[in-house]
Design a protein that fits this description.
22% strand, alpha/beta, disordered C terminus, 994 residues, 10-stranded mixed sheet, 6-stranded mixed sheet
Length: 994
């Protein structure tokens, strides 16, 4: 593989833009005050607790720590041995005034910020002496002031880096009065942070929300005309808004029109910057209109609401409000998705006016969509031939950003306004469960490895849009209906399903699902995702329920009802007999299991009354049954036309290695090709107005390929059997019966399926640290659209005991009663004395269901006595197609230790590596022997027929041996043997041993 495309763990983080912001934090504060002031702050005001509380309440990180000293000498001593980020001095110390202390501190630690927290404003005569103090605030006992002081200092220390690095926005506040600044700054910070939090409720997830807080606009303060103008000129490209007092110093003197002249100067240079004039003189409102600027009365009892109005309506926070030319509201958007929808239809003159005022870019800046805003802000009408071209370009930028920001990210579902194109949504808290975890992980891997998309640019690779309900939903459902008793109760599966169907459904989930279905109208797959499902060593693959629903009824309430029913039945499957018996086998308590639910878009297209993909399949990065020049590490895939039930249930499908796609072990001859080719497939019935009762396999119908020969998938995948010439042509465009051998894809590479499979398996294997199994499906189109590779699931394959060296000797091969060159596992056992044999003389494939029931009865008896056993018989074990083998399910054989699959003339099938049954037996370390009719394979039926029979059934014999069998499997060579214990008198007698 080209090193350009090798996986690397050092991937760029999704939100790396935010990690480098706000690098300088105020963590340590030194407070110099009298013991009385310190006591008041700590005991009366509880200042430390309130600072922590304020930080938590505003969702801010790293609250600072206060250290108190009572005089300058103690302060200088502490400063000599500890690092501080800020010093706060309170007046009324007997030994020195605050300004002299500030100068002493700055001599000791140059550049250390010093602030004075006084109980009254310093007189004008003292201002000239304030060289040792950087800032003065009037203290009223409110902890919010300290939070604002800290945040303001952090903004000042980080603004230069953060604006240059990513274009963080800046708000300039001009105020020379310590009293007004002390009251106004906390209001502004609190409102700014809360507005940021409010808009971030649409944030993707908690990590995104917390990190984006770092990208909130910064507030810079100035107390003179010259300083304010200097800040504006320095940060002019990043200015979001300016708030100014009216009277403050200019040219060294207090001037009554400084704020008005400052705002006029700013408006002359930048017409699009919102301005706010704040004054305690109501008459200045008329002057504000002439600038023009918005006005607030600093003495108004509604100051907070007026500031909030300015922040939300004019600085870009809150909803984007579309207004007509008379400033009347015509519509509003609260997210990128809703903005995009509205933007498509607003009149051109309104669109043009919002662009001229830079309203779009300002709104994006407020939402910390900085890169998007940076692209939009410089755009002018003159850059485009017409307004409509400008609109379409803006829509394209928004859509691209919307898709990119949510790729590979687990997004919290927001029922008020969510984007239905989001890859991965989550409702509720708690775990995602094993299946959803694997899917979320592979989504993030695909996003963090762009080489995959670059290398396979002719094919789209992604996971279908997915909504998960966390385990908290299951917990609430179980608790409100008092159903915990089912963990230990012996209740039939049908009764469990009925109990769950009749139970109350949590209203908070139903409300969110209603909002989801309001936007989503495509077919849905409702799948289990339990805590243990797809776990590394004890995967419960295929033991829980999956339901597909067409979701096309015109009545939303009926669609919701069926979705709720499907979720209940998925939850119910937690307590079915199959997973319970599996839990018992792996010593796991059923009451510890919890069930999350995946609601996933069904990949595919509608053809007539049915919906299905072109190809479904399972891929494994390790091949337990390599063929010819294949090696185990080359992997294997099983594929079928239509919905993947054919593959996971072990029905007829095609097996190949992605490394050698032209080599088909099942099709060595034309006769074998015709015999093993898929003749039926599964499609989802599109109900229209009909709502069906849910049950296993509900809404899925088994269809004959011969009835669908004209649809695009068959035309693009099928070969044709030429009866006259007795050959198969690799095309469907000639007359004759169609044969699904996938030759156009595997042999002629009409789509790069093998290459994509190989790389996806490699990516997943590197990510999970071992062999993996994936479920996938492929959409193919005949209208020029790119084919789509949909990743439906990824899970680790069962860990193999590679370190245990199992040696099968020549002597073992001589005395073995069963030899397989395709055995699964890597172990050595001698704890099996019982054997269940399907007698070859009475075996009838038409009776395979009856045989499965008989085996289940024997299994129950052996399980009661805690006796493991060897199971042997013809055909594919665990296949859902009873014409391919004996269709046992896990509860039917839950006590088995090893399985032998034999071949008879009437039944020769390939092993089904992609089935859930196969996955579960490998997970549990159950050895699986495939005994073919090759010379190096052996099944000594005569020996088994001569052993003592405990009970004889119609088709199955229960044998109990006088001594345990030896079962050995070498995982390196895939060779396995079953041995009678050497030295056993019975063995010697029967085999005429010396």
């Amino acid at each position: 593989m080209d090193t350009k495309y090798m996986f690397t763990g050092k991937q760029t983080r999704k939100f790396s833009l935010y990690h480098d912001l706000m690098q300088v934090k105020v963590r340590e504060i030194l407070l110099i005050s009298s013991p009385y002031d310190a006591w008041v702050m700590e005991e009366d005001s509880k200042i430390s607790e309130r600072i922590v509380s304020e930080y938590r309440g505003l969702n801010l990180s790293s609250p600072p720590r206060l250290t108190w000293v009572s005089n300058i000498d103690e302060a200088l001593e502490v400063l000599g041995c500890n690092c501080f980020d800020l010093v706060i001095i309170m007046p009324h110390l007997s030994n020195m005034n605050c300004f002299d202390m500030g100068r002493r501190i700055k001599e000791k630690v140059p550049g250390l910020p010093v602030a004075m927290l006084s109980h009254r404003q310093v007189g004008a005569s003292d201002i000239e002496h304030m060289h040792g103090v950087d800032r003065e605030f009037v203290w009223s006992g409110d902890a919010e002031l300290l939070v604002a002081m800290v945040k303001n200092l952090e903004d000042m220390l980080n603004v230069e880096h953060d604006t240059e690095a990513v274009g963080i926005r800046v708000i300039i506040v001009v105020e020379d009065s310590p009293r007004y600044l002390a009251s106004f700054l906390p209001i502004l910070y609190k409102e700014l942070v809360r507005q940021t939090q409010a808009l971030l409720e649409e944030g993707l997830n908690s990590e995104h929300r917390l990190l984006t807080m770092r990208a909130r606009p910064k507030i810079l303060t100035a107390s003179t005309y010259e300083h304010a103008l200097e800040l504006f000129k320095k940060y002019e490209p990043y200015i979001l808004g300016v708030i100014s007092d009216v009277r403050f110093p200019k040219e060294g003197k207090l001037y009554g029109r400084s704020g008005i002249e400052l705002l006029k100067e700013i408006k002359a240079q930048r017409k699009d910057i919102p301005l706010l004039l704040a004054s305690n003189e109501p008459d200045n409102a008329e002057r504000a209109v002439l600038i023009p600027a918005y006005f607030v009365d600093k003495n108004s009892p509604d100051l907070m609401s007026e500031v909030r109005s300015f922040v939300t309506e004019h600085l870009g926070f809150g909803d984007f409000v579309f207004r007509d030319l008379d400033e009347n509201e015509i519509s509003r958007a609260s997210s990128l998705y809703s903005l995009e929808k509205i933007l498509r239809n607003i009149p051109q003159d309104i669109f043009k006016r919002h662009c001229e005022k830079n309203d779009f870019s300002r709104w994006f800046y407020a939402r910390t969509e900085i890169r998007l805003a940076n692209k939009i802000r410089p755009l002018k009408d003159a850059d485009f031939p017409d307004v409509e071209t400008h609109r379409q370009y803006l829509l394209k930028l928004i859509a691209a950003r919307r898709r990119r920001r949510q790729q590979g990210v687990l997004v919290s579902f927001n029922p008020k306004d969510f984007d239905p194109q989001t890859e991965f949504l989550k409702i509720g808290s708690g775990s995602l469960g094993g299946k959803a975890r694997g899917l979320a992980f592979i989504c993030s891997m695909l996003n963090r490895n762009p080489w995959m998309h670059e290398k396979h640019s002719e094919m789209k690779i992604f996971a279908p849009t997915t909504l998960t309900i966390g385990t908290s939903g299951f917990d609430d459902f179980m608790e409100m209906n008092n159903l915990s008793y089912l963990a230990s109760a012996d209740v039939d599966d049908k009764e469990v399903a009925q109990i769950f169907s009749d139970a109350f459904f949590p209203g908070w989930i139903e409300a969110q699902l209603w909002a989801y279905l309001h936007e989503v109208k495509y077919p849905l797959s409702v799948r289990s995702s339990s805590l243990l499902e797809d776990a590394q060593y004890q995967a419960y693959a295929g033991l829980y329920s999956t339901y597909m629903i067409s979701n096309d009824h015109p009545d939303l309430e009926k669609r919701l009802s069926q979705l709720v029913d499907a979720i209940k039945l998925v939850w119910a499957s937690t307590y079915y007999k199959a997973p319970k018996s599996f839990s018992q086998r792996v010593n796991q308590r059923t009451d510890e299991e919890k069930m999350a639910v995946i609601i996933q878009k069904v990949a595919g297209q509608q053809y007539g009354d049915y919906f299905f993909p072109a190809i479904s399949g399972v891929g494994q990065s390790y091949n337990y049954y390599p063929f010819g020049k294949m090696k185990p590490e080359h992997g294997v895939a099983s594929i079928a036309l239509g919905i993947g039930k054919s593959v996971v249930d072990g029905e007829q499908c095609l097996r190949f290695s992605p490394r050698y796609p032209k080599v088909l072990p099942q099709c060595p001859t034309i006769a074998d090709s015709l015999k093993n080719a898929q003749t039926t497939f599964y499609g989802l019935k599109m109900d229209g107005s009909e709502i069906r009762t849910l049950h296993d396999g509900a809404n899925l119908e088994k269809l004959n390929i011969a009835d669908f020969e004209e649809i695009p998938p068959v035309q693009m995948l099928a070969s044709t059997y030429d009866v006259q010439e007795g050959r198969i042509r690799d095309t469907a465009s000639v007359p004759g019966p169609k044969v699904i051998l996938f030759a156009p894809v595997l042999k002629h590479k009409s789509i790069p399926l093998s290459s994509v499979l190989k790389d996806v398996l490699l990516l997943a294997e590197n990510g999970m640290g071992g062999p993996v199994e994936i479920e996938f499906c492929v959409n193919m189109y005949d209208d020029g659209r790119k084919p789509e590779f949909n990743l439906l699931q990824v899970r680790p394959m069962s860990a193999r005991a590679d370190l245990n060296h199992v040696n099968i000797t020549d002597d073992d091969l001589k005395r073995a009663v069963c030899i397989s060159s395709h055995a699964l596992g890597n172990s050595e056992k001698n704890d099996v004395e019982d054997v269940l044999i399907v007698r070859p003389d009475v075996f009838d494939i038409a009776k395979s269901r009856e045989i499965a029931l008989e085996i289940a009865k024997f299994n129950g008896k052996l399980m009661k006595n805690d006796r493991k056993y060897l199971l042997a018989g013809p055909g594919r074990w665990g296949s859902a197609d009873h014409w391919l083998g004996i269709p046992v399910e896990w509860p039917d054989i839950s006590g088995v230790s090893a399985i032998v699959e034999t071949s008879v003339e009437s039944l020769k099938v390939e092993p089904s590596q992609g089935s859930h049954f196969f996955h579960n037996i490998t997970t549990l370390g159950i050895n699986y022997f495939m005994v073919s009719d090759k010379a190096d394979n052996k099944m000594d039926w005569e020996w088994f027929s001569e052993q003592p029979v405990v009970e004889e059934g119609e088709y199955v014999n229960h044998i109990r041996l006088p001594a345990p069998l030896g079962i050995k499997v070498d995982g390196r060579s895939s060779q396995g043997v079953v041995l009678p214990v050497k030295g056993s008198s019975e063995y010697c007698l029967l085999k005429d041993c010396e």
